[in-house]
Prior knowledge:
The chain is built from ten helices and six strands; from the N terminus they run βαβαβαβαβαβααααα. It has helices at residues 12-24, 36-46, 62-70, 88-95, 108-119, 130-138, 155-165, 170-177, 181-195, 200-209; strands at 4-8, 28-33, 50-53, 77-82, 100-103, 124-125. Helix 3 links the parallel strand 3 and strand 4 (77-82). Helix 3 runs parallel beside helix 4. The longest helix is centred in the last third of the chain and has 15 residues, at 181-195.
Amino acid sequence: MSIRVVLVDDQDLVRTGLRMVLEARGVEVVGEAADGRTALDVVRETSPDVVVMDVRMPVMDGVAATRELCRHPGAPKVLILTTFDLDEYAFDALRGGASGFLLKDGPVDELVAALGHVRDGDAVVAPSTTRRLVDHFTRGVPPPATGKKLVDLTPRELEVLRAIASGLSNAEIGAALEVSEVTVKAHVGRILAKLGLRDRTQAVIAAYENGLMDRS
């Protein structure tokens, strides 16, 4: 199934390059924007599956645009694509509802795979930034008021949460636990509901905040 994508970046060359490599791999680029404000209009006109969003842009930055997009039911998924490994603006975008965080210097195949994962409801974070992302959320930053209580989870749900926090996709979790992907999705849905979480990114944070993962 083709993925419909809107590219948002203030650099024309970046958007042109992304369009070329993505379309060569079967991704349908349905729109482009050079700032967050324009992106909101383009998204309304094109109804993409995923918005590939830069962070630092004029008029409206990627954080504000992500928050605005994610306020609405049925909004497209947002994948942050940034130059900076430690870009706190991108972290803020994840809090605002973005489903993924990748670096512009990463492999194209990783980006294409991430688009599919994000479209399907998974969270994707660049491996090189996962630890620092967790540290950002868990060091001196008050957690969101989500009412997280891991004691409400069953042993299998804890196992799935630990796998999510380790960066595994639903398919990889299913293979590791020898259950179907449909079963994994059901577990993930129950975990999010029980913990009052929005998405898998917040589930990763919850796992670390509650001591489920080794943060050393």
